[in-house]
Predict the structure.
Amino acid sequence: MAEQARFFNMDPATAADARRKGCDPHTLDQAAESMLCYIYANLPSLPVYEGTRLAALASSASPDGVDRISRLPPELLSNIVSRLPSVKDAARTAVLSSHWRRVWLSTPLVLADAHLHPEACGWPPTPATSPAVTAAVSRILDAHPGPFRCVHLVCSHMSAHGARLARWLQLLAAKGVQDLALVNRPWPRDVPLPATLFAVTTLTRLYVGMWTLPGTAALRGASFPHLRELGLGCVEMEQGVVDSLVARSPVLEVLNILGCKAVRLRLVSQSLRCVQISWSRMEDVAVVKAPLLERLILFRPCKIAGGMSTRLRIGDAPKLHAFGYLEP
């Protein structure tokens, strides 16, 4: 826990920045990996079967030679393909026949780049594995017509792949992604997320970690009419970005902030039900108007300048009945 707290309090964006602040980058690498574990633990589960990997049969035909699986209704086949353990398993069904290729192309895509990480390379991922993984992600996003049901891109070092990231976000916006998680590897921490992220209006759930978010200017005209859950983990951002994101999300119910430096947070929302802020440096948290807010949790807030603690102000929140404040 001490290393995590030091990581947040020192707040280095790059290894060189860590050295200037008197930190050992290797030690902070270890702390950053621990923090990534917290970020990964906060990510929503993928909507796939996560049990024992299914063994492949030589044929989908029964002993009498009749292929009964392929005769199932298209909606049921699509549901089966969407729940296979990984996108590689789902894509492999396309080689069975032209019929199965149509099934895969018509199935809302579930993609996790962790499933594309070479098993022989072990964990955690390194910059050396990122080119192969990002190339595979690009091929899949280009090949599948959408919609994208769930996309988790969480195991690549994206500092050298900015153009690819911008292309991914364009495709995700155009093909209607609903559940999106984007996590960069820790060094450097100041890799900017393209403003195209704020053009994805189909999102129902968004989690981002280890990035620099676009500024408030990029949010002008943006709207997230379907967004119900927002998670921010170890991101750099301008003052007011969280407030603006909440204000532009009329059905947002869950806000989860981990390891961020927002200084001041001013919450005005007609839909928020749960707010959790962990390991973050907040000078002031004001719940101005949140008539549906039921739970507000501040877990181990980092000390701000002068050693002061987070100041919390509760305004109009008549349904707030679960409140937790745990100091470091």
About this structure: The chain has nine helices and twelve strands. The radius of gyration is 22 Å. The mean pLDDT is 81.
